[in-house]
TrEMBL record:
Record localization: Cell membrane
Transmembrane segments: 15-43, 83-101, 113-134, 146-166, 173-195, 207-224, 231-253, 259-280, 292-311
InterPro entries given in the database record: UPF0324_pro
Pfam families: Cons_hypoth698 (PF03601)
Record's bilayer topology term: Multi-pass membrane protein
Official protein name in the record: Sulfate exporter family transporter
Keywords assigned by UniProt, alphabetized: Cell membrane, Membrane, Transmembrane, Transmembrane helix
Taxonomic source organism: Candidatus Parabacteroides intestinigallinarum
Length: 313
């Protein structure tokens, strides 16, 4: 450990708080916040792991609900409907391919299934919902979440430039990001980086996709022969829909709705900082080669398949 790292580790807590406040500034984008969090975690570690994990979870949910106050229900439902058929096909295809790859790579069955579910639906949220059903232990959870988080962080940086290079429209990019990027946080972050319409489409399609947590969790009970397991329902999605309904049919002053959307975007920025700060060296070491190979192959499959689908529409 060099002198700089020693100094950083010595003052890790006040530095973390300063960076947290920095991410609240108007000019800090979600991608910058994620990068700052990643750099901090790799150099210093995570001084507040429990706080970051819990706060990022609920802050993301509040932020998504806040974004609903800036969206029109009719336009959003149209976007969600357009991506519905491909969502169904891709969820089933990724789960089946993921289990096949896991078997060929001689991976633990539970880890392979968790990574597959995370890639197919909505990253860490899907893994957290399915893990109790398959009775995954801490090691299997760490490897699965680590794989998804690493690829999730990469996606936020590379997807917007690829979208511009390919000349994707706002709608095309939003749908592609929603299907091909794992976690809701990075989907919304990538959509916001690409444009307002891309953000709306990406958020709606991703949350529609996230509802697949429920049928997949139920199916998992039969696959792993677990009776009486608890099904985790992402209730915040319904509050997001209520926010869209209110914004569409109620005469909410633009100053109010605009402020709520701005706060939601700032909340998302801080969320990505916290998520990035959780991706420490320890997490990366826990992943292992085989889970990462499976995760990358699944990501390439869903990325290319969804790109072909949105460009063909």
């Amino acid at each position: 450990m060099n002198a700089i790292e020693q100094i950083l580790r010595r003052y890790d807590k006040p530095l973390f708080i300063l960076l947290f406040i920095f991410c609240l500034l108007p000019f800090v984008s979600p991608a910058v916040a994620l990068f700052v969090g990643l750099a901090f975690a790799l150099l210093v570690g995570q001084p507040f792991p429990a706080f970051s994990k819990k706060t990022s979870k609920y802050l993301l949910q509040f932020s998504v609900v806040g974004l609903g106050f800036g969206m029109n229900l009719h336009e959003s439902l149209r976007a969600g409907k357009e991506g519905m058929l491909f969502t169904i096909l891709s969820v089933v295809a990724v789960l089946l391919l993921g289990m096949y790859l896991g078997k060929r790579l001689l991976m633990d069955r539970k880890t392979a299934y968790l990574i597959s579910a995370g890639t197919a639906i909505c990253g860490g949220s899907a893994i957290a919902a399915v893990a109790p059903v398959v009775k995954a232990d801490d090691s299997e959870m760490s490897m699965s979440l680590g794989t998804i988080f690493i690829l999730n962080a990469i996606a936020l940086f590379i997807f917007p430039p690829i979208g511009h290079w390919l000349g994707l429209t706002q709608e095309q990019f939003g749908m592609w990001a929603a299907i091909a990027i794992h976690d809701t946080s990075s989907v919304v972050g990538a959509g916001a980086a690409y444009g307002e319409r891309a953000l709306e489409v990406a958020t709606m399609v991703k949350l529609t996709r996230a509802l697949w947590i429920i049928p997949v969790t139920i199916a998992t009970m039969f696959i792993f022969k677990q009776k009486g397991a608890k099904v985790s329902i992402p209730w915040f999605i319904f509050f997001f829909i209520l926010a869209m309904v209110a914004n569409t049919f109620l005469a909410i002053p633009e100053a109010v709705s605009g402020s709520l959307v701005w706060l939601a975007k700032k909340g998302l920025t801080v969320t990505l900082f916290l998520i990035g700060a959780g991706l420490s060296r320890k997490v990366i070491k826990q992943v292992g080669v085989r889970p990462m190979v499976q995760g990358v192959l699944l990501w390439i499959f869903i990325g290319l398949a969804s790109l072909w689908a949105v460009m063909a529409m």
